[in-house]
Amino acid sequence: MGQFMLPDLGEGLEEAQLTRWLVQVGDTVTLNQHLCEVETAKALVEIPSPWAGVVEALHAQPGDTIPVGAALITIAQADHAGTVAEAPLAEVADGEGPVLVGYGAHAPAQAFSRRRRSIAAAPAASGATAIRETPAPVAPVAATAAPPADESAVKASPLVRKMAAERGINLARIAGTGPGGRIRVEDLASAPVSGAATLPVGVDSGEEETRISTVGLRKAIAAKMVRAASIPHFTEYGLFDASRLSALRQRLKSEPAYAQVKLSFLPFFVAALTRATHAHPIMNSRWDEEGNAIVIRKSIHVGIATDTARGLVVPVVRDAATRSLAQVAAECERLVALARDGRLDPGSMIGGTITITNVGSMGPVETGAPIINAPEVCIVGFGAIKPRPTVVGDALAVRPGAWISVSCDHRVVDGATAAQFMGALIHELEHPEGLV
Amino acid sequence: MSSATETATVTMGKALNLALHDSLRDDPRALIFGEDVGKLGGVFRVTDGLSEEFGAARVFNTPLAEATIAATALGLAIKGFHPVAEMQFDAFSYPSFQQVTSNLAKYHTRTGGACPMSLVIRIPYGGNIGAIEQHSESPETYYVHTAGLKVVTPSNPLDAYALLRAAIADPDPVIFLEPKARYWMRQELALPVAPQSLDHASVARAGTDATVIAYGPTVAVALAAAETAASEGVSLEVVDLRSLSPIDWDTLYASARKTKRVVVVHEAPIFMGLGAEIAARMMHDLFDALVAPVERIGAPTTPYPPSRHEKLFLPDADRILEAVDRTREY
Amino acid sequence: MADVISTSPMRSDASPPHNPIAELLTPEGTLTAEGERLAGVSDETLRELYRLMVVMRRLDQEGLNLQRQGELGLWGPTLGHEAAQVGGALAMRATDWIFPYYRDFGMAIVRGVDPGKLLTIFRGLRHGAWDPHEYRFAPFIIPVGTQVPHAVGYALGCKLDGDDTAVLTCFGEGATSTGDWHEAMNFAGVFKAPVVFLCQNNQWAISVPMSEQVAGRIVDRAAGYGFPGVRVDGADALTVYAVVQMAADHARRGEGPYLIEALSYRLGPHTTSDDPTRYRTEEDGAAWRAHDPIARAEERLRQRGAWDDAFASACQREADERAASMRATLIAATPDHPASVFDLVYANPPQTLLRERDAFVADLAPDAPQEGH
């Protein structure tokens, strides 16, 4: 018995419409006897029987549209139909699949196919929305494993190299999870950057250095700014009353705990920012393009945009929330001094989560719209504190004050959120006693 | 009548037929000619009914002479007509190669801009229809390698309509490649179809994990691969080039920057195919934006195989997914 | 500048080419009595023409059936071409070459090519199915008209080698529109190549009728290229046979090419993908259906008293048997290993291709048949 499938009658046709049957169930048909007439997109054609036998079933009605490869008719081999040499055909008549062009009613004796893809070998679903702040633990290369002598021996894509350079990550210190130990983007996320454990702050370890040529610093700044400027971001401005802050600073200057430091306004800004950020953790996040996610950081590491003779650098006050004002002041002073001397080790310049730019320190500048320090989502500019006409009650008074500007990555932070954050920041600055 | 919005489910062949019809209706200088485009309506029925409706002066059969079909299109263009010439099959466009590459492509330059070549050469191309030799070629690289030609290819009925109308309206010579394996592909169109530009790629499916760049016959294959990938939790973006020359790099780069992984798929041989240019450009312009080398799926450096074996040589969803896997495992 | 503008008065420097065969034809394009006498076609040859035409028609019908049954991707029916193909091929010596067009199924049968193997081309198993040297029968060429200059090249080689060989090449009337055809005609005229151009003018190039294809007459083209041409009744196998034989002898003698326009009619569709009802009516071919090559040959045999019914039924029996055998051969034909696609791209394959081949084989399913099957 054979089921005859509708063949492609004209080079790539997908279907045909049955016009009429020329046989009925029970009819004895001979090889090549016309069975039916079908109309394709190209022509009206009669279909001859591929076998001799007895018609057992018709699988379509006149008017039906039949897809190529669908059953058309079932013909049982009739014992008495021995007049046609059909033996070799009957053997292969059963169970063939859809009829394809040139493949016919008889399944090909040999079927070649491609090796199918092994789905097990495919990587697990990435989970496009999963936050991958802590993927599979990837320890820094153990002491016993000899790390590659230099980064050029590391297997990593150009993107990974670029990201590592931006983040100051020494690829030679990372064990890659890709084939043959290739370092993948995900491996960078778990690299010892946000966890300070393996990146000793302030230790100038020659082996650890990602050496940024001072000649190239300008170029690096340019590239970083171009990338950052391509991120959609906005800036909001606010003015704060610095009367109490100025008074507090004057008072603290004479206290023994601050005898060893030069107590500028900067440590207060860092401290106020840290507290405001703690209350608005979204400001302490990054946009993860790879995972299509927003990654909120626990620790607050405040970058200090610092002008140096060689250009802009951003040393980082690490774990600002755990430091006292005095400690913050000491750290700021130390980092700024090292930066100005060009002696900052790269470990001090990476891993920031939010940045301050002290625009007020630059002569007559009142304020500005800072460019965010990607991948961070927020940068805060502090203007110069100086006497300003201020409405107090119903009267005009002269009080010290300054402008604040908050720039945010608009993919992550909306205007209202930034406004609330600025409100918190101004509150901290206008009620600075809590900072001590 | 045509101003009312209506919908119709049409095949790509019918969509092309509608585009030709509407161009003849709207542009009195449009002409259609080629082998068997008259009463027969073309071997794929794309010109069905047009000679009856618009008359033999505007839709006519020519003798069997592809070089002269292309060359008379050139002459008619000088006279201010907008010819749409049909080559019956991909390999049968080769006799016209001299006229197309040496004259059509260069006439505008040669005449100091005095003779724009506002014409279209339609060519059915690609395999997968079980045809005999010379009926399954992918000649696009020959044409994209010739400056002065624009080369476009639709992957679905909607684009077929819109791109063909844009091609006919364009002042430059357009090689319009029709994926013959998709002539019977159906899609619902809202009529009238909105105009489209000739030279923009489209994101056929948005995704985040890898970009599959395809065109013409391979777009449907890429979309099928994306469907399978989605069931595995992998989000593929499918970019349909539509224009092979020029290439819409902005759309390609935006997608590649987003997904960081790129697979290019075509039926034509990998060697010096469109994928070679795409991979080379990305190597240069997106060198540090990708996490894996650009993968290419295409034919080996052999003639198109006998049809019994063509499935082994054509890109399929499985091969695309394997390439995606390679970029993701990299 | 004197070389550029001739100062000689205009003069005709060529008389019309001598055309000895034309003198042996009636205005209807059949052999005159004198022509028949000179050609000396035996009863045996006439019976052979008849037998081969019956076989050809039956095998062609089986090709059509096989396509409709999904066994072939495409078939190009030859109904109406029997006399031109059988007559033309049988007229050539076994040592002569034939450069056919894609519809020359009948010529392949005459040349002894196994039709079941030939059909594997249309089953999509391979692009070529015979050794041209073995049968002196070049492969079917799909792009219209492009085989014609190949024949001229081979014929030029025969002339250069001093062979006693003539070359026959076939094409339809559509091919005469192509540049390749005209260039080949001119080359042949210039080089006096020993080639016979046999146009099987079946009056339809798919849907385009002769009136839209050809301005003037094809046969008259020959004079423009400096050699003679004749138009013959393409449904009369005897005439085609005799005329092709005379033209081949003419070429063999070093007297240059001949063009023969065998007028016939494509009674079937262009191919199985075609639908002639869209562009012509039944009446269009009625006269030609009545002017059937096989009936014409029977008539000639009866005129000679060389007909007998037993011979006719033997021919039909042979045709049926060969149809069944062709079907069986086709269906039993196994595809070559797909890697064979790589094997003959070059006579001296580059390493790069061999590496591609290895990668292709490695990518086949592990349960795929091994190479060598």
Q: Which helices and strands appear, and what pairs or packs with what?
A:
The complex is a heterotrimer of chains A (436), B (330) and C (373).
Chain A: E1 2-5, E2 15-21, E3 28-29, E4 34-39, E5 44-48, E6 53-58, E7 65-67, E8 71-76, H1 87-91, H2 158-167, H3 185-189, H4 214-229, E9 233-241, H5 243-253, H6 266-279, E10 285-288, E11 293-296, E12 302-308, E13 311-313, E14 316-317, H7 325-341, E15 354-357, E16 378-382, E17 386-392, E18 395-409, H8 415-430
Parallel strand pairs in A: 12-15, 15-16
Antiparallel strand pairs in A: 1-8, 2-4, 2-7, 3-6, 4-5, 6-8, 9-18, 10-11, 12-13, 12-14, 16-18, 17-18
Chain B: E1 6-11, H1 12-26, E2 30-34, H2 50-54, E3 59-61, H3 66-78, E4 82-86, H4 97-104, H5 107-110, E5 120-125, H6 140-144, E6 150-152, H7 157-169, E7 174-179, E8 186-191, E9 202-205, E10 210-214, H8 218-231, E11 236-240, E12 243-245, H9 249-259, E13 262-269, H10 274-285, E14 295-299, H11 310-313, H12 317-329
Parallel strand pairs in B: 2-3, 2-4, 4-5, 5-7, 6-7, 10-11, 10-13, 13-14
Antiparallel strand pairs in B: 1-8, 6-12, 9-11
Chain C: H1 33-39, H2 43-68, H3 82-91, E1 97-99, H4 105-110, H5 115-122, H6 132-135, H7 148-161, E2 167-172, H8 179-191, E3 195-201, E4 204-205, E5 208-209, H9 210-213, H10 218-224, E6 229-233, H11 237-252, E7 258-263, H12 286-290, H13 293-304, H14 309-332, H15 340-343, H16 351-362
Parallel strand pairs in C: 1-2, 2-3, 3-7, 6-7
Antiparallel strand pairs in C: 4-5
Helix pairs in contact in C: 2-3, 2-13, 2-14, 3-11, 5-14, 7-8
What does this structure look like?
The complex is a heterotrimer of chains A (436), B (330) and C (373). Chain A has 436 residues and is of the alpha+beta class. In chain A, 22% of the residues lie in helices and 23% in strands. In chain A, the strands form four sheets. In chain A, strands 9, 12, 13, 14, 15, 16, 17 and 18 form an eight-stranded mixed sheet that branches. In chain A, strands 1-8-6-3 form a four-stranded antiparallel sheet, with no helix packed on it. The model of chain B has no long low-confidence stretch (mean pLDDT 95). The radius of gyration of chain B is 20 Å and the shape is globular. Chain B has 330 residues and is of the alpha/beta class. Chain C has 373 residues and is an alpha/beta fold. Chain C is globular and about 70 Å long. Chains in contact: A-B, A-C, B-C.
